[in-house]
C-alpha cells in the first residue's frame, strides 16, 4: 500500500504544476509579443488549441485512469508536461509555438480527472483535502505570474518555460520511485458522506452543468487576462514585469485561502449552504473591476479570485460526493471536459472582447455570465447527510 499522505503530496504538487504550466504563456505573452513582432490580440489565440486539448483530452485520460492505472497516468503527466514546457523554450515561429502549447494542453489534461480522483480515493476528510489541493493549484496560478515575470525580465521568456520544465521532470522521477501501482477498489471512501433524493438527481446534474460552464469560462478568462489587465491598469504604480507578477501572486494567495476555507466548510455543511452565498460574489466584483485601476482594482480583483476559486472547490467536491470509486475518474473527466472546453473558448473570447471594447467590455460580459452561478446554486437540492465527525 502507498502512504496516503505521500500520494496526496505528489498529487498536490501535480495540481500546482498543472495550473502553472497552463498559465506561463498568459504572463509571458506580454514580453513575447515584441520579440516575435506580434500584438497581444494576435499572439494570445495561439493558446486556444492547448486550452481546448486541456478539456477534450480529459475524456480519454479519465477513462485510462479508471481502466488502466492512475499512477501510471500521473507519471506520464509529470514527464510529458515537463518536456512540453521545455519545447516552448525552443520555438522559432508562431506555428511551432501553437504546437508546443497544444502539447502542454494534452499532457495537462491528465491531471484533473486522474489526480482529483486519487485525492478523493485517499482522503480521510474530503472537504479538507479538496481545499488543500485547491490551494496548491491556486499557488501554481500565482507562482506562474510571479516566476514568469521575474525569469522573463532577467533571463528572457524562453527560460520561463525551460526552467519549470526541468524541475517538473525531476518531480516525475521522484514520483516514479516513491509511489507504486496498486488496486484501490473496495477501499473505504470519504466521498460516501452525502446524498440527495433519487428524484432530485437531475437538479444536481443541471446545477453542475450550469455552474461548470459559467465558472470555468470566467475562471480561465480571469487568469489569462489578469497579467495584461494589471499591466494596463496599474501603470501608475509600476511598469516592472517582475513587480506586476508579485502583485498578481499576492492577489491569488487570497484565492488559495478561500479554497482551504471552503473545503473545511464543506466538511461541516451541505453543498447548497456553502454554494449559495458564494455564488453572489463574482458578478458584482467583475462589473466593478471594469471601471477601476490601481489600488481599488487590486482590492476588487481579490474578491474576484476568492469567488472564482471558491466555486471550483465546490464543483470538485460535488462530483466527489456523488460518484463511486470505479467511475470517479470518468465522472471527473466529463466535468473537466465540459469545463475546460468552455475555458478554452474563453481565450479567443477574451481576445475578441478586448478588441471590441478593451477590458471594460470583457469584464461586463463575464459579470453577466456569472449570474448563472446564482441560478445553479438555487437549483441545487438539499443533501441528506450521514453523520460525520468534525
TrEMBL record:
Membrane topology: Multi-pass membrane protein
Entry keywords, A to Z: Cell membrane, Membrane, Transmembrane, Transmembrane helix, Transport
PROSITE patterns linked: MFS (PS50850)
Cellular location(s): Cell membrane
Cited Gene3D superfamilies: MFS general substrate transporter like domains (1.20.1250.20)
Tagged with keyword tRNA processing: no
Annotated protein name in UniProt: Major facilitator superfamily transporter
Organism: Bradyrhizobium cosmicum
Amino acid at each position: 500500500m502507498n502512504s496516503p499522505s505521500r500520494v496526496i503530496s505528489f498529487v498536490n504538487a501535480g495540481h500546482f504544476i498543472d495550473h502553472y504550466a497552463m498559465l506561463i504563456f498568459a504572463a509571458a505573452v506580454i514580453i513575447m509579443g515584441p520579440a516575435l513582432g506580434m500584438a497581444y490580440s494576435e499572439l494570445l489565440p495561439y493558446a486556444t488549441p492547448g486550452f481546448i486539448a486541456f478539456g477534450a483530452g480529459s475524456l480519454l485520460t479519465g477513462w485510462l485512469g479508471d481502466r488502466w492505472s492512475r499512477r501510471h497516468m500521473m507519471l506520464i503527466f509529470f514527464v510529458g508536461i515537463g518536456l512540453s514546457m521545455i519545447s516552448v523554450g525552443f520555438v522559432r515561429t508562431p506555428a511551432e509555438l501553437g504546437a508546443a502549447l497544444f502539447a502542454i494542453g494534452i499532457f495537462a489534461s491528465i491531471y484533473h480527472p486522474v489526480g482529483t480522483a486519487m485525492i478523493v480515493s485517499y482522503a480521510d476528510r474530503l472537504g479538507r483535502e479538496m481545499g488543500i489541493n485547491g490551494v496548491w493549484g491556486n499557488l501554481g496560478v500565482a507562482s506562474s505570474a510571479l516566476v514568469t515575470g521575474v525569469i522573463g525580465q532577467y533571463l528572457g521568456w524562453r527560460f520561463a518555460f525551460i526552467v519549470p520544465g526541468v524541475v517538473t521532470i525531476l518531480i516525475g522521477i521522484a514520483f516514479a520511485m516513491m509511489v507504486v501501482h496498486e488496486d484501490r477498489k473496495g477501499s473505504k471512501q470519504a466521498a460516501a458522506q452525502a446524498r440527495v433524493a433519487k428524484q432530485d438527481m437531475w437538479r444536481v446534474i443541471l446545477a453542475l452543468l450550469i455552474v461548470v460552464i459559467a465558472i470555468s469560462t470566467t475562471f480561465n478568462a480571469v487568469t489569462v487576462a489578469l497579467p495584461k489587465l494589471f499591466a494596463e491598469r496599474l501603470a501608475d504604480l509600476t511598469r516592472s514585469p517582475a513587480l506586476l507578477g508579485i502583485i498578481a501572486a499576492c492577489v491569488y494567495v487570497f484565492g488559495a485561502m478561500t479554497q482551504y476555507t471552503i473545503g473545511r466548510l464543506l466538511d461541516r455543511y451541505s453543498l447548497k449552504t456553502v454554494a449559495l452565498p458564494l455564488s453572489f460574489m463574482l458578478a458584482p466584483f467583475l462589473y466593478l473591476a471594469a471601471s477601476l485601476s490601481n489600488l481599488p482594482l487590486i482590492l476588487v480583483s481579490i474578491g474576484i479570485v476568492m469567488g472564482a476559486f471558491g466555486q471550483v472547490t465546490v464543483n470538485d467536491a460535488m462530483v466527489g460526493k456523488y460518484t463511486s470509486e470505479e467511475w470517479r475518474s470518468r465522472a471527473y473527466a466529463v466535468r473537466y471536459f465540459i469545463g475546460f472546453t468552455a475555458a478554452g473558448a474563453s481565450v479567443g473570447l477574451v481576445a475578441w472582447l478586448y478588441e471590441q471594447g478593451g477590458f471594460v467590455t470583457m469584464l461586463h460580459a463575464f459579470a453577466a455570465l456569472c449570474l448563472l452561478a446564482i441560478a445553479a446554486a438555487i437549483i441545487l437540492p438539499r443533501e441528506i447527510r450521514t453523520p460525520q465527525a468534525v
